[in-house]
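To illustrate the input format used throughout this study, we show a single complete record. The first block contains the structure-token representation of the backbone; no residue identities are included at this stage. The design step must infer an amino acid for every position from geometry alone.
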């Protein structure tokens, strides 16, 4: 059986290979979904104008409000695309941590991230205490 982790050693606080296996599987499924979502968003945001999406291929001018709506929808889609790509990067980082034997150890404090948190956000690199602290610091 092929190992999902590249090394046999693990970082203090990290989950063992067996403990990480369900998260590895969950991350692979989540990654496939996000890749599909980003592909769909990119196609929708970059490849279609209002006329093409509604089936109207005539070159008749459209109302200025329609142009504004198109621009807003495209910008919104591009913002969603950027967020999905950031999530994809986080998923890939989590998969790399599994391979390195470091998954489940908080990158800030080194403590073990609780499984309940990992079930909710399997790509998170930090424990709830560090996340709370970071959130409080950002609020100033």
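Output of the design step:
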């Amino acid at each position: 059986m092929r190992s999902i982790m590249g090394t046999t050693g693990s970082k203090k606080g990290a989950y063992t290979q067996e403990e990480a296996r369900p998260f590895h599987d969950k991350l692979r499924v989540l990654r496939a979904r996000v890749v599909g979502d980003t592909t769909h968003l990119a196609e929708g945001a970059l490849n279609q104008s209002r006329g093409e999406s509604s089936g109207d291929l005539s070159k008749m001018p459209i109302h200025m409000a329609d142009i504004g709506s198109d621009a807003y929808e495209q910008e919104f889609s591009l913002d969603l695309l950027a967020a999905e790509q950031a999530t994809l990067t986080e998923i890939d980082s989590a998969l790399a941590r599994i391979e390195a034997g470091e998954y489940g150890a908080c990158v800030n404090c080194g403590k073990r991230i609780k499984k309940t948190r990992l079930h909710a956000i399997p790509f998170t690199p930090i424990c709830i205490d560090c996340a709370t602290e970071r959130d409080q610091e950002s609020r100033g």
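Structural context for interpreting the output: Residues 1-9 have pLDDT under 50 and may be disordered. The first helix runs from residue 17 to 47.
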